[in-house]
Structures are given as C-alpha cells and as structure tokens.
Amino acid sequence: MNIFEEVESNVRSYCRSFPDTFLSAKGSIIKAASGKPYIDFFAGAGALNYGHNHEHIKRRLIEYIESDGIIHSLDMYTVAKEQFLHSFRLTTLNKLNYPYKVQFCGPTGTNAVEAAIKLARKVTKRAGIFAFMGSFHGMSLGSLSITSNNYHRQAAGIPLSNVTFIPYPGDIYDINSIDYIEKILQDDHSGVDKPAAIVVETIQAEGGINIAPIDWLQALSEICKKHEILLICDEVQVGCGRTGSFFSFEEAGIVPDLVILSKSISGYGLPMALLLIKEQYDIWAPGEHNGTFRGNQLAFVAATAALELWDSKQFQEVARENSSLIKTVFEKKFVTLDPEIQVRGKGMIWGIDFSGIPIKEIAYEVRDICFSNGLIVECVGRKDTVVKILPPLTIEQGVLRQGLEILADSIKMALKRVVAHKRG
User: Fold this and answer.
1) Cross-strand pairs, 163
2) Per the count of CB atoms within 10 A, which of 27, 201, 340, 423 is most buried?
C-alpha cells in the first residue's frame, strides 16, 4: 500500500484509471517518476488546451512572481485583472460584438454554474430550470441538480429539485426536443412551470460527445426569447477554442444570455472561472455572490498570455490542422475497425462510441491498453461506453499521429475479444 492509499480519501478517481505517479510534463507529454512518457489525450479534462507548461505562459508567470506581484486580492482592482479584462475584451468580446459583463466567480466551473443559476432566478423571479439528459455541470448542489448522471446525483444525499430534464437531440429517446419544450410551455396541464433558464452544452462532453445541431441551437435560442427564459451556455469543457472557434456556440450565430467559462480560460491549469452576463441581466447587489479565491492573480496573468496565443493566426492554424487530422483518422480509419463503432466529434474533442459492441466494459479495456502503451484517454457517456480524446490544441502533429496509432492498435487489441465472443 502506498501513501496515497494510506492517507488519501476513497473519493479519488482518476488515479484509479491512470495508476502511475507523475513527475513532470511539457507540451503534450507527461512523464512518470519512473521516466515513462505518456502522450496526453486527456489534457486535464480540458483544462490544458495550451498544453503543459507552455513557454509563453510560463515566462509571464515567472516574471510576475519574481516581481512580487499581487497574488491574492479577493475582488479588489489589480493590474493583473485590468490587463486580463483589456485582453479578453479585445480578443473576444469586441471582436465578436458580444455584449457581456464579466463576473469572476470562485475558482472552479461549478461555482460559475451556481452563479448562473442564482442570477437567472434573481432576474426572472422563477425557480425552475430546464436541463438536458446526458448533461454534466458540476458537483456542488446547484450544478448537481442540473446534472443528469444518477451516480453523481445520489451522492447529494438530499432531493435535487426545481429541474426538468429534457431529451438532448439525437440521444436514445429520439424525439424532437424543441417541439417538446414548446408543448410543455404552452400546455396549461403539463404540470411544469415556466423555468428561469434553460442550461445547455453545445457538446455534451461527459455525456458521450453528443453534439447539438446548429439549427437546434438556433431554435432553442428562439424559444428562450419567445418565452422570456434565459439561455445559459456551459462552455466549461468545450470553450476556449476546443471546437475550433473560441466559443463553441459561435457557429450557430446565437448569443446566450449567460455563458460559463472555466478550465482552459486560465491557459495553464490554474483555477479560474467566469460568468459572462448580458448587461441588462447584471443585477447583482455587491457581494451577493462571492468567493475568497475569485481574485486568482496568477490565473489572470496566465489567461492574458493565453489569449495572446489564441489571437495568433499561427496558433489557430496549428489547431485547425490538428483538428483536420483527427477528423480524418476517426472518420476514415476508426469506423472501419468494427461496423458497430460510431465516432462523433468537432474540432479537437472526439469520441469513439462502443455502446453497440456486445462486450461489457470494452471502452475501459481500450483505455487501459492505451495507458499501458503510453497514451492517456478517458471514458465518458452512458455506462462509460465512449472513449473520449482531448489533446492539447498545441500538440505536435508527429505526437498526435503517434497517439492516434496507439489508440487504433489498442482498439484492435480490445476487439479481438469481440471476435472470440462471437465465435464462442
């Protein structure tokens, strides 16, 4: 038994999937204390879009620390916050003509989700929320109430109320969820009150890489406008360039009322979360939602440097080339490995769906074989039947190809069990 098992709580999870002790990381490679290298197709669950220890961001952090810059400041004005706000407005808000105010929340995505739910209820004076089956929004009670995963919900220990779950487009229920929402809202016998907000992920990452069609997102936005319901877009995992554009909803041409950002907004894996608020809905009283670590100055410094990278045409071109390579390999190579395999993805978030394979836990087996061969991938979706990849946007093409080869070989090895099962 090691020190982790002796001292750390049973709640630990990722270490059970990736049982090694890690020492250092650079770019898209993580090294264990033993010296074994791993290609990182996990990227901190989407918190490391710029890879590990990116030189540009690291230099800024070192310079800031060596200058004795402010490290903690609650929500007081600081030069680091000022520079981030200027950069964020220049590179995203002004460029996209988005009318948002920026709220600095507690340091994790779930806190920004909590803030969004609270603000929507404060604005509309309504309690209910519509969320979607297959969703994941966090583990604190408010965000857990709009998360559909029963395993996580049961841990709350109390009823998670005031939420109505709607089928996500293309999921196992196969209904027109837009028509369904409209009928619920118009039917005076539906038993469902008009909600304060509808919370949506344009791509359900933890839900299994389920992708909302553009026309569906547009229709959802129109329903919210028609019924004076706030539209909240959770960009925690699929934002900050993961899908190709900075915000995943850009392609749909919609402008949500509230937008939740975390994970890669800091660019370096440092805790940081934002709630973007249309100006007319910024009705908070001072301190009405706060947190001791909402002024993470190192995250501001890193985020400003990361936005400079994002604003570079060269950076975006590298990400586009990587996205194109992943799409080609998934759609032309992986789908040919077995007729029951499905692939889904956009930009640099993709999943391989093994739910049609008649062998239980085959996705886990693929993940474990990948890990033993030096590649880190995660399992998501209903019953964890989808292998998800989230490489850093900055990954070198040679390393990306190597990782995809390991993934392909691992799938082939796992599928040998399927052949044996059919013969048996």
Assistant:
1) 129
2) 201
Q: Hey, what are 405's tokens?
A: 């080869």
Q: CA 270: distance to chain centroid? A: 15
What's residue 172's pLDDT? 85
Written as one letter, the residue type at 174 is D
The answer on 355 and 274 residing in a single domain is no
Going by C-alpha positions, the residue among 107, 129, 109, 108 that lies closest to residue 118 is 129
Q: Is residue 30 part of a domain?
A: yes
Can you state the percent helix, strand and coil of the chain, rounding each to 5?
40, 15, 40
Task: Print burial letters for 279-312: b (CB count within 10 Å at least 16), e (below 16).
Answer: eebeebeeeebebebbbbbbbbbbbbbbbbbbee
CA–CA gap between residue 404 and residue 260 (Å, rounded): 31
Q: Which of these, 259, 255, 211, lies nearest to 235 by C-alpha position?
A: 259
Pairing of strands 274-278, 100-104: antiparallel
pLDDT digits (tens, 9 = 90+) for 107-151: 999 999 999 999 999 999 999 999 999 999 999 999 999 999 999
Domain assignment present for 170: yes
Q: Are 256 and 379 members of one domain?
A: no
Same domain? For 132 and 213 the reply is yes
Alpha-carbon separation of residue 180 from 162, 183, 223, 230, 334 (angstroms): 18, 5, 11, 18, 35
Let me know if residue 62 belongs to a domain: no
227 and 304 co-located in one domain: yes
Q: What is the CATH number of the domain that holds 13?
A: 3.90.1150.10
Q: What one-character DSSP code corresponds to residue 358?
A: S
Question: Are 201 and 261 members of one domain?
Answer: yes
> Same domain for 295 and 261?
yes
Low-confidence ranges of the chain (pLDDT < 70): 1, 418-424
Whether the model clears a pTM of 0.90, i.e. scores above it, the answer is yes
Residue numbers of the domain that contains 83? 69-310
